[in-house]
Amino acid sequence: EGYMANLVVVDGELFVDSPAISEVWIDGHRFELAKLEPPEVDPAGTWALTLGGVGGMGDIDAELVLTGDPTSLDGAMSVMGNELTVTEGRVSGKQVRLQFNIGGSGTISVNFEVDGDRARGNGSGPYGDFTVRGERSGPPGGSTGDEETRT
Question: For residue 86, how many other CB atoms are within 10 A of its CB?
């Protein structure tokens, strides 16, 4: 009582590239991190998303391009003329968890469940909470495979 208690609890080694942090204690308060399950889906590809209810603006169309391994996703989301780079992305079970840094305004978190080539979930950011729904429109790199071959 009365002492500062800051701890990081890991599963395995702390000083590795990707430590498995399970909880953090700050000033004696415990913060348990969400448990990650092994990935059941690979969300890589191009996604046509609809973000619903963002700041009272109604539905907003966005394009999300994801690349990389399900445990370490890269990519970007184009929305309203802005391109937001994925700062953290991974899959837990069928759930995709993404974060985007939007500078001084903060971060946007997007979480959605993948069912085949469909996605449904939610997000939050400086303008409030919103819904996410969409479909995978192409494989990684933005190609739909429907392009005409020219010789």
Answer: 21
In whole angstroms, give the CA distance from residue 37 to residue 50.
Answer: 26
Cα–Cα dist 149/135, whole Å: 25
Predicted confidence (pLDDT) per residue in 68-84, tens digit: 988 889 999 999 899 99
Rounded to whole angstroms, how far apart are CA atoms 7 and 25? 5
- Residues whose CB is less than 8 angstroms from the CB of residue 58 and which lie 6 or more positions away in sequence, other chains included: 52
Q: How many other CB atoms are found less than 10 A from the CB of residue 143?
A: 11
How big is the chain, counted in residues? 151
pLDDT-derived band of residue 149, with 50, 70 and 90 as boundaries? very low
Cβ-contact 34, 24 below 8 angstroms: no
Q: Answer for the pair 87, 77: CB distance below 8 angstroms, yes or no.
A: no
